[in-house]
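Appendix B.2, paired examples.
Example (i):
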Amino acid sequence: MAGSVGPGTLALAEVRRFPNRPVRVNGTLHWDILGLYGNVLDGLRACPPGLASAGIDSWAVDYGLLDERGALLGNPVHYRDSRTDGVMERVRAELGDDLLYGTSGLQFLPFNTLYQLAADDLSRARTLLLVPDLLAFWLTGAIGAERTNASTTGLLDVRDGIWSAPLLSRLGVPAGILPPIIEPGAPIGTLRPDVAAETGHPGLAVTAVGSHDTASAVAAVPASTDRFAYISCGTWSLVGVELDAPVLTAESRAANFTNEGGVDGTVRYLRNVMGLWLVQESLRAWGGPDLPSLLAEAARAPALRSLVDPDDPEFLPPGDMPTRIAAHCRRRGFAEPRTPAETLRAASRLSGREIDVVHLVGGGSRNELLCRLTADASGLPVVAGPVEATALGNVLAQARAAGAVGSLAEARALVAATQPLRRYEPSGDPAAWDAAEERLRGER
């Protein structure tokens, strides 16, 4: 995406779009990181001259390991790979939840970076770089760990924002492999001469942004006050509120809420919900039917008849999703609810933050049925959009670093003034949703 920012102006132009296809090799699911980097170079080549800077965001938790020469030791492993099966339970038993949650404030998820490291061979590793930091290293030669993404590893102390030496020692992870923390808006470096010659952008600056895609998306939430919740809805739905400080209470830990870093030192207090992954995998299994027609048909189906806990671990791996959903419904063995509506209520209760409106951003904001159901289930108005919130947040972080935008509040006001948004009011009987929640819990 190429972005332009100025007084009253915030616009994106799609330069290049490409697939991101994981590859399974000898039973292990990898990211094709070199293919992705090649597409990054192609995207830069397709950009017009005169760029002020470039910024990179991606998904969280996954990483590449470099040897002493800075060479990649192997393709990064996909967080949906099975190598962490049972690892989280073992690490929690050995280190204890008090240390793990009290240090990082991170939701217990089996693919968090620290559990991947416990399953990895670090004997030859000299540097660990999360995916956006790895791409930035190849572009510039500079090494660092952007804070919002570093906060998803489980290795960062959420209170002081530095790598936790006690936790690294207990895990047996060499502290020297973790790079210095850098903040969103900080300069990373300029393109290496060979990269500049290949892409046609000599001297182009690479700027740190909220390199965890959700951090960028939340930065672009068009909120006018702090009394808002957000749902960043794509493959995952990240459901939560923005706070000034982490919530590390026993109640928060029991509810499995996470405290992740946001732009300007904020805390993204949220729950990860499986989101549209179930839809995406189902569409793939069905051979790619027309989604708008399917959603229109779904809107006519009886409401709240079949209930699914999307965060059941059986739904995490890729594969035949429709069969798993059908089996899940047949068994009726529902775990505690993980619905966005319930998560919003819990976030408000645990954080003490009153919520007046839900901002639903990302690709899911185009899904009218999802937006209407979210308003009905939460009992709150939903403002849908922008669709490309992550790219907008990325561009705005660069624009702020360049002095084109002031505060985070000003950046959000610019989003609200320039991007198409749609508001959905709650309707229907909230008692029906309460009854569905009880059914999902197994309460009769």
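Example (ii):
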Amino acid sequence: MFHRSYLLVTLGACALVFLAAFESLAVTTIMPLVSRELNGADLYALAFAGPLATGVIGMVATGSWSDRKGPVAPLLAAVGTFALGLLIAGTAGTMPVLVSGRLVQGLGGGGLTVALYVVIARVYPPVLHAKIFAAFSAAWVIPSLVGPFAAGIVAQVAGWQWVFLGVVGLVVPALLLTAPALRGLNGTPVQGPGEPAAAVDSAAVSRPPGGLAKLALAALAALAVLGLNLSAEVPGAGDVLAGAAVAVALLAVRPLMPRGTLTARRGLPSVILTRGLAAAAFFGAEVYLPYLLVERYAFAPTFAGLTLTGGAIAWAAASAIQGRLGTRLEHRRAVRIGSALVLGAVVLALVTTVLAWPAAVAIAGWIFAGGGMGLMYPRLSVMTLALSTKDTEGFNSSAMSISDSLGGALALAGTGIVFAAFSTTTAASFAGVFALTAAIGVAAVAVSPRVAVAPAAAGTRA
């Protein structure tokens, strides 16, 4: 992927992923300062939930556009929208304006991910897909090592506005690196010499309604996610609203996924579902692990955050290892091992909480969780493209990103509700959170063997 034919697009694509990840982590660091300065405590949660929700709309729009016209125009539009959101947020004088910028930023960020996946399918031969997705994982993980610290320094020295505005100046050069490859993109996926055409799970091919109807479904799913996040604030009716929000989100997203995704049909649907379940188990637990260390074990916040750094390093290392192993590690085996590692880590966090074991047990376990994600995430991306045709690359990449985003969002909303419900004791709250995410992890392990293509589908060629 660093051959001169691909070097610039590799560097540009990884730089775009890096900047999107950096911005996501940096905002987490500076948002308390922003909220205090703009007197926006009431909109604090929405500043995080909003981009996640609008990202779903961007994913659907970009996926459909890429299938119809190719990925070049959607990628340019997504990067432009992302940069516009940064400009709005960086120049905001009030919290509502900043949240508006975050919503626009999320719209572009969601589209950026899908467009890049389609670019990979069109530019790189399949033999390089595992390696480029490993590079993407590293580009996403590395900011977790430097992003929060760098954002804090920038906010102290130059002001929090430059955490947003500074990234704008870096997005344009990153996009320009990909320009040579985009100009030569003819919309045809690259196939390496002697490589067979990709096997397509034809039974899973599904098309949602076109045009505005498709975007309306995405918007409805996004609103349902926001409603779930806010349901705990409604006294008396919170449980009913939460259940209704989950039902609406699943019903709205169902046509935006390959047929059989929610029922774990073998092949592509289970690939998409496993991605969402893994994201839900991992990110739903990860948010509360530093909180556990601070509240139960009196860790300093900075030291507690190093737990996530260990997981991030393991994620990057496992991604690199699976990329080097290539076909020597079969896709389904990588996914099964990865999902089992995530489940084991969450169970260790649960047992540590319930039995008051040393914090080192949960910390060590989370290193295995990061390794599991690094092992299976690139392979799930590779399988999604391998089971797609030229006309469904955008739709399937969008479905994978939506599953990832909604899985994490629904899990975070659910763990928030559980944490509040068991607030009688701190131990019970954390135990409830890890029990819920462990149950999701069990579901991921159960579905993971079904990611292999059924024999009938494997005989169908793109």
